[in-house]
Amino acid sequence: MANLRKTVCALAASALVLSACGGPAGGTDDKRPVVLTTFTVLADIASNVAGDKLRVESITKPGAEIHGYEPTPDDIKKAAKADLILDNGLNLEAWFARFVKESDAPHKVVSEGVQPIAIGEDAYQGKPNPHAWMSPKNVGIYVDNMVKAFSELSSGDAAVFKANGDAYKAKLQGVQDEMTNALSALPKNERALVTCEGAFSYLARDTGLTERYIWAVNAEQQATPQQITRAIGFVKENKVPAVFCESTVSDAPMRQVVSATGAAFGGVLFVDSLSGPEGPVPTYLDLIRHDSKTIVAALTGAKP
Ligand SMILES: [Zn+2]
């Protein structure tokens, strides 16, 4: 029986199906180095670079709010066992500094080298917008940083990481082109992206959209009356046909904007988390495709 399990797990590992064989649950058969990431988007990108050479996990689960996440004692234990921790940086993971203080694992900031866009409004004005991964071009830089960090962690696999990284960057270019073509084809008066969180600065820059939001960065206190009034004013003034909200926050404030303006609720966009495997965006490439399609469909009045 033990031999059978070994064989099944070896087969599963080669097919990247790890859950029953010492994957995220932490079994003893899997001796690969463990790379711990702070959220699901990074975990997916890192898995593409790591291939089957490393075990990649995410501290936060699909759907989690990641800006103000509170690490659990189990998270701290997991971090202590990790061989490398990857965080986004750019002030995304407010909880991360405290978290690494309690862990000895080395860590790498994957946004290193990205040209940040400054936040334009509210308490965070002038700080870097953390959502750099909403530009697939930037994710190419994330990939280079991962290739480097993984090659230091497991130098014998450096050529594999480089090849995986190059193959993934080709896919990033494909999805970047799809996104830019779809969104920059929108008529000029429909190129406004109004969302709950100001998470789309990089995507808006890449695609020529004007970005407006209710609040700048997810935090405990969201959507003051002034922020909602400001969004309503913009939507009315520019006759914006549809507005959006993100999967990890309540859409109640945006529903207020909808009822005050008559704009349509254009749908749920994914930024700070992937969906589960059965949901609409199990991977980062799906996330970019899903958001582009949802935005275009809502702003042009087409059915998605
Ligand atoms: Zn966010």
Automatic annotation (TrEMBL):
GO terms for cellular component: cell envelope. Transmembrane segments: none annotated. PROSITE patterns: PROKAR_LIPOPROTEIN. It is found in: Cell envelope. GO terms for biological process: cell adhesion; metal ion transport. GO terms for molecular function: metal ion binding. InterPro entries: AdhesinB, Bact_metal-bind_prot9, Lipoprotein_PsaA-like, ZnuA-like. Pfam families: ZnuA. Residues 1-25 form the signal peptide. SUPFAM superfamilies: Helical backbone' metal receptor. Gene3D superfamilies: Nitrogenase molybdenum iron protein domain (3.40.50.1980). Its main location: other. Keywords: Metal-binding, Signal, Transport. Belongs to the bacterial solute-binding protein 9 family. PANTHER family: HIGH-AFFINITY ZINC UPTAKE SYSTEM PROTEIN ZNUA-RELATED, METAL-BINDING PROTEIN HI_0362-RELATED. This is Putative periplasmic iron-binding protein. It comes from Amycolatopsis japonica.
